[in-house]
């Protein structure tokens, strides 16, 4: 599958070590999550690869990266979409977002990828739609506010109660979900209850 080869290639080209705190870099080649501060982690490479393969990111697509953390997934997505695409990455911790933005800038000339601080009480960018949505934190239920941000023909990969879920929005707007194994993630900070 071409998408599988592209994921392996970008993971070879984007060195995980450059996205880790100095005290974690010696373990960059290990297939395990590594701490980056604030109780957050840089996900293990095999998990990231599985998520990116499910996401099936074509060149030129517009991607939302929720829970950008260290910025490693943002840089990988930037390479997958290329200069005709766009990656909008959000991280809820301002200092992690700033470090991630600096790491993404340092990883190569990818001005089409940006990292910002998530708006409190909101998931993603309400009111906008994306061809692909990657969520790197575990939701307690399928987050409808993020499903709403998946464009017709688009896909979202999100862990829900530690089960990896692929969400596909068909061209007619209908939504299908499939489950793809069990994973452990930090929890997604979700929208406060409405009322």
UniProtKB/TrEMBL annotation:
<keyword id="KW-0489">Methyltransferase</keyword>
<dbReference type="GO" id="GO:0005737">
    <property type="term" value="C:cytoplasm"/>
</dbReference>
<keyword id="KW-0808">Transferase</keyword>
<protein>
    <recommendedName>
        <fullName>Protein-L-isoaspartate O-methyltransferase</fullName>
        <ecNumber>2.1.1.77</ecNumber>
    </recommendedName>
</protein>
<comment type="similarity">
    <text>Belongs to the methyltransferase superfamily. L-isoaspartyl/D-aspartyl protein methyltransferase family.</text>
</comment>
<dbReference type="InterPro" id="IPR029063">
    <property type="entry name" value="SAM-dependent_MTases_sf"/>
</dbReference>
<dbReference type="GO" id="GO:0004719">
    <property type="term" value="F:protein-L-isoaspartate (D-aspartate) O-methyltransferase activity"/>
</dbReference>
<dbReference type="InterPro" id="IPR000682">
    <property type="entry name" value="PCMT"/>
</dbReference>
<keyword id="KW-0963">Cytoplasm</keyword>
<dbReference type="GO" id="GO:0032259">
    <property type="term" value="P:methylation"/>
</dbReference>
<dbReference type="Pfam" id="PF01135">
    <property type="entry name" value="PCMT"/>
</dbReference>
<keyword id="KW-0949">S-adenosyl-L-methionine</keyword>
